[in-house]
Amino acid sequence: MDGLIKYDFISRMWQDASVGGWHFLSLPEDISSEIRKNLQWQEEGWGRMKATASIKNCQWKTAIWYDTKKGTYILPVKKEIRTKAQLITENDLEVSVWV
User: Fold this and answer.
1) Range of the domain at 81
2) pLDDT by residue (tens digit) across 84-93?
């Protein structure tokens, strides 16, 4: 993807504790630190940064959010993507993110 930086990592999907909570992947701390240091100026508010993500055979436009409590960016994974790629929270997933 022209002009975008690609980050590849492995992460385990987790679900927020709230009722009907969203599912997320946490970007590794080292990648989050690099993105925050070099690209924070691209954040649009509340630590949101436009991104494209890819897991298995699914690629989608999305955003990553900086979680100050975790010190990492988090990637939301909608039900549509979880269903299409047959993702479950117990598995480590190979993820690519372009920012």
Assistant:
1) 6-98
2) 999 988 889 9
